[in-house]
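Hey team,

Filing this mostly as a record. A colleague (T.K.) asked me to run one chain through the structure pipeline before their review meeting, and I want the input and output archived in the tracker in case anyone asks later how it was produced. No errors, nothing strange. Just documentation.

Input sequence:
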Amino acid sequence: MSYFYHMSSVKDIETAVSKLSHEDLSSFRRWFADFDAEAWDRHFEQDAKAGRLDGLAEEALRDLDAGRCTDL
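Output structure:
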């Protein structure tokens, strides 16, 4: 079965995914988990480079200095 056709909306993708065999759905889940993790990592790196996490880091360091942290 060929799944290659133009998908222009989330609804098209949902429809295509709903037609996958059990094996193909398992493969898709693994692929999407990897894809999503990589996308999240890229976004996190961009945020860090742009300084959008600086406030959180400063707050964490203040909490550490004030003894409000628990060793793991």
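Quick notes for T.K.: The radius of gyration is 20 Å. The chain has three helices and no strands.
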